[in-house]
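We both want to read discrete structure tokens more fluently, so let's practise on a single case. Would you write everything just below, so we can both look at the same thing?
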Amino acid sequence: MTWLLAFHIVFVVTWFAGLFYLPRLFVYAATHPGPEIQSVFNVMQRKLLGITHIGGALAVFFGLAVILTAPSYYLGLGWLHAKLALVALLIGYHLWCWRIVLTFREGRNRRSHVWYRWFNEAPALLLVAIVLLAVLKPF
């Protein structure tokens, strides 16, 4: 179980690294709309998204593996239900990032760099809430 938890944490870090940097690439791409630089940003976004997919999938896999070691225990913890709800929001955010990557690739972005700067704050807020729940176990 300790190995599963360790790998869960490693891939959560990987996942969040991608979710922190990918929206920054959106900010830069929205700030510099020229076609030559857009092609560079499109490649960067695509490659980072791939790594982020892997980190997210493995974080979820190892998290579920931990739960499956003692499902009756883990599923009885109220804080874990709240954490899983936040993880579901994080997965939704990840999918939204994927959609934005496609929007940039197709040259259909209509949002400003300011919008993406605010969008970039969501994973940080989710990270704080998830870590507080996992460490403090308030209920």
